[in-house]
Amino acid sequence: MIAAAILLAAAIALPPTTGAADYQLGGAYTPPSGVTVVTRDSDSRPAKGIYSICYVNGFQTQPADRKWWLSKHKNLVLFRAGKPTIDPNWPDELMLDTSTSAKRAAIAKVIGRTITSCADKGFAAVEIDNLDSYIRSHRALSASDNRAMATLYAEAAHERGMAIGQKNAAEQTKKLRPIFDFAVAEECYRFNECSSYTRYYGTHVIDIEYTDDLRGTFADACSAKGRPMTILRDRDLTTKGDTDYVYRSC
Questions:
Q1: HEC string of 18-52?
Q2: What span, in angstroms and rounded, lies between the C-alpha atoms of 128 and 126?
Q3: What sign does the CA torsion over 207, 121, 110, 81 have?
Q4: Count of beta carbons in the 10 Å neighbourhood of residue 33
Q5: Would you say residue 60 has pLDDT above 60?
Q6: What's domain 2-59+101-249's superfamily in CATH?
Q7: What is the structure's pLDDT at 10?
């Protein structure tokens, strides 16, 4: 078993640390010149010839899937006072109930199908979002619940030959590092959190800063000591040709 695990780990490729990243959750488009790693939604296809990360919402439901979860897997949705618990910043997303091992196993089976789909499409890695849902759960969930859930996702990704990335949750990085292979951070420069990731992942960190809440200038972010692979995007992650589209890298 140990030998098999070593061979599996050796076959998993981590994201490149040179070149530039792109973050395309708002829609897929041809990456700008120089991009070596791109993140796209699980409904999209990987970028041809570029290391591609598949976005998976592992701890909350996608807006379009709200009714499906309540109909097919209501018992896996977190309820409070008889109502499903929502993310206050994303009211169309329901929180998944990671509070017991049985529920985590059931959730892993559902989300595992998405992870398998990512692998079948040719994505090299998955990025698991909303690791910090416990913060917004009114204490119904804990950080340890979500770490246990993340462990199941990591096993699923690794079994399919994909790397898996920690998404945000800077305060948990030390405990999450044994589970994940790299990190994707939103606004770690803005909130002075980049070192919380690079301390444990080294150069295998991607940072996305946003135009509507940038600390100083993007040049400041690019000149920060020990910065990760950093890009600037518009908040809605629009596609090329949209009037709001912004993409810069350093």
A1: CCEEEEECCCCCCCCCCEEEEEEECCCCCCCCCEE
A2: 6
A3: positive
A4: 7
A5: yes
A6: Aldolase class I (3.20.20.70)
A7: 52
Predicted local confidence at residue 91, as pLDDT = 86
Tell which residue, 149, 160, 91, 87, has the closest CA to residue 121: 160
- Give the global pTM: 0.94
Q: Write a three-state SS string for 100-143.
A: CHHHHHHHHHHHHHHHHHHHHHCCCEEEEECCCHHHHCCCCCCH
- Residue 233, beta-bridge partner list: 210, 247
Tokens of 236: 């809605």
Is the alpha carbon torsion for 51, 183, 58, 210 positive or negative?
negative
148: which DSSP letter? H
What confidence tier does 90 reach under pLDDT thresholds 50, 70, 90? confident
What three-state secondary structure class fits 127? Answer: strand
The domain ranges of the chain are 2-59+101-249
Distance CA 176, CA 186 (A): 17
Contacts of 6 (CB under 8 A, 6+ apart): none
Give CA–CA dist 249/218, Å, rounded. Answer: 9
Which of 32-36, 62-66, 114-118 shows the lowest per-residue confidence on average (mean pLDDT)? 62-66
Query: What average pLDDT score do residues 108-131 get?
Result: 98
The predicted pLDDT at position 49 comes to: 96
Over residues 131-140, mean pLDDT: 95
